[in-house]
Amino acid sequence: MRDSFAGTATLVRFALRRSRFALLWWIVGITALYPIQALALEASYPTQADLDQLAASLSGNAAIIAMAGPEYALDTIGGQTAWQTSAFGAILAGLMSTFLIVRQTRAGEENGADELIRAGVVGRSATNAAAVIVTTAANLVLVVAIALLLISCGLPAEGSWALGCACGFTGMVFMGLALIFAQVSSTTRGAWGMSGAAIGVAYALRAAGDVGENALTWLSPIGWGQQVRAYADERWWPALLLLGTTVLSVAVARMLHLRRDFGAGLVAPRRGPATRDWRGGAYELAWRLQRPTVIGWLVGLAFGGAAYGTIGNDVGDLVGDSDLSGSLTGGQTSGEAMTDGFYGSAMLMLAIITAAFAVAVILRARGEETSGRAEPLLATALHRRTYLASHVALAVLASTVGVALAGAATGWMYGVVSGSYDRIGQLTGAGLTYAPAIWVMIGVTVVLVGFLPRLASWGWLAIGFAAVVMFFGPLLKFPDWLMNVSPFTHLALVPLDDVAWAPILWLTGIAVTLVAAGFLGFRRRDVVN
User: Fold this and answer.
1) Rounded to the nearest 5°, which phi and psi values hold at 461?
2) Cβ within 8 Å of residue 402, ≥6 positions away
3) Which of 63, 79, 247, 348 would you label with 14, given CA atoms 20 to 30 Å apart?
4) Could you say which DSSP state residue 372 is in?
5) DSSP states of 8-28 as a string?
6) What confidence score (pLDDT) does residue 230 get?
């Protein structure tokens, strides 16, 4: 038993050193969500009468309950903070846990790094144990940081600790599930896919259970975290349920790990067709490699757009008439213009999410390179330019389709709720106006792949920066030059504003230049494996 865990402490130190920047960004990003939301609510609703009015306008709205969760103590800052952050914080904690577990377990087996590690004095279960220790520590840091920051904002201590535990403990449940999926799948991609699907299903079950007030909520770890009822007569037994599920899932993962071969999964990958006519060449290969990812993202964007559409004309009841709310509606506070401004902001948010999808597609080209699978391809007559172009073309095409699909889904669901389907074409066009900004994000990532391949993942920083500028730029009064760094800032807020063609043309030109520069760098540098 002891030999099975030999070397765990060394692997923990290695994992902390290797993932220190990723851990920092994940923890800071998730933690900041909570105090910023609390402070924003205090600034927007300074009196109890304002909070009562807000609670009355939000109460009973099925669409909003589906997005945020059950209503508890909405007439308090703490209750509003918990309601508006708990579901999204749990999702982010789940994604963080999945990232840490898959990177330290299945990814190491897939790229051969674990084989080198096991050549030393390392037990069979040491890698998994180190991954669990690091991920558990990261989630516990979330618990403490969220609680202390909310207490420093003046919120009650017990509710702050409850909200922190709901986030961190939910993340630990998804850690256990990701560890199980890392044993089931023989590929990193499969483990990621199953873990992402688990988070999506958990969110959907919670939404269906909360709207229908039925037992489906209790099939979702996200629902358990919200049933802690932070700031609303807290209940601690759902937190114990989260911890118990974590222990059980980690034990199941260990049992599965001991019953499989190194490098293999419990589910063997399917064999490809005996004969295949690859007329599409590198472009068909890129599509087949990324097909599940692309389809998953497109479905997710369609659901996200449909969720915004369910709000229909009730935008005023949702966002209120405060200054902060005005930032969500393009400064409009009433009438049709307010609805136009809200859906313009919704399309901007969906466009930034689509840009993250595009960056993920581009980074797959770098992933194929580091895994050693690109080198045999490039040793053939396949030109480097064609290899990279296949992934860039897929990213451009899929992201453009994705943002248009999100707009169409928003308009369609808006029509279902309001009875007017005029916005389908309008919001589809609104989504497409953001395509040039997404292409710029693709260009930035291609430049990193071409010139600074070791820093290619910094393409995510560009997405994070754009999101921060969108969510917090006006609230924190960022200077204009900093706001203008984000390409999304320069585009018109359609349908509230008319389409501005000059920024579209400029951004398209910048994107083409960046992509061309990235191709030049990729052609001149060595291929790394």
Assistant:
1) -65, -35
2) 297, 298, 301, 354, 357
3) 247
4) T
5) HHHHHHHHHHHTHHHHHHHHH
6) 94
